[in-house]
């Protein structure tokens, strides 16, 4: 697998398309931080780590409202073949503030709102709305 982040986003999209309650993703610290951001923003209900050592997985409990997924779209922006970086002045609200972008900065993964507030730029990982 060349892009584990894209795989994670695809697993979430696919699970929501068939109304699964949870989705399992192979563990990495980066994916865990991304899942925690989605949880903090209210886009997923919960994030659990299960297993030990090599068999660790991230269990994400998906969130639905009136039997429709809360996440309408998950889009990978920066890809292994084409990285997308934005400086602090170029970060704009996603969908007039209704969406969010996850940005990898020197201070870790943060949302676009947080990056604008702190005056940080970085690699745009994905957009969610």
Automatic annotation (TrEMBL):
<dbReference type="Pfam" id="PF00410">
    <property type="entry name" value="Ribosomal_S8"/>
</dbReference>
<keyword id="KW-0687">Ribonucleoprotein</keyword>
<dbReference type="GO" id="GO:0003735">
    <property type="term" value="F:structural constituent of ribosome"/>
</dbReference>
<comment type="similarity">
    <text>Belongs to the universal ribosomal protein uS8 family.</text>
</comment>
<comment type="subunit">
    <text>Part of the 30S ribosomal subunit. Contacts proteins S5 and S12.</text>
</comment>
<dbReference type="InterPro" id="IPR000630">
    <property type="entry name" value="Ribosomal_uS8"/>
</dbReference>
<protein>
    <recommendedName>
        <fullName>Small ribosomal subunit protein uS8</fullName>
    </recommendedName>
</protein>
<dbReference type="InterPro" id="IPR047863">
    <property type="entry name" value="Ribosomal_uS8_CS"/>
</dbReference>
<dbReference type="GO" id="GO:0005840">
    <property type="term" value="C:ribosome"/>
</dbReference>
<dbReference type="GO" id="GO:1990904">
    <property type="term" value="C:ribonucleoprotein complex"/>
</dbReference>
<keyword id="KW-0694">RNA-binding</keyword>
<dbReference type="InterPro" id="IPR035987">
    <property type="entry name" value="Ribosomal_uS8_sf"/>
</dbReference>
<dbReference type="GO" id="GO:0006412">
    <property type="term" value="P:translation"/>
</dbReference>
<dbReference type="GO" id="GO:0005737">
    <property type="term" value="C:cytoplasm"/>
</dbReference>
<dbReference type="GO" id="GO:0019843">
    <property type="term" value="F:rRNA binding"/>
</dbReference>
<keyword id="KW-0699">rRNA-binding</keyword>
<keyword id="KW-0689">Ribosomal protein</keyword>
<comment type="function">
    <text>One of the primary rRNA binding proteins, it binds directly to 16S rRNA central domain where it helps coordinate assembly of the platform of the 30S subunit.</text>
</comment>
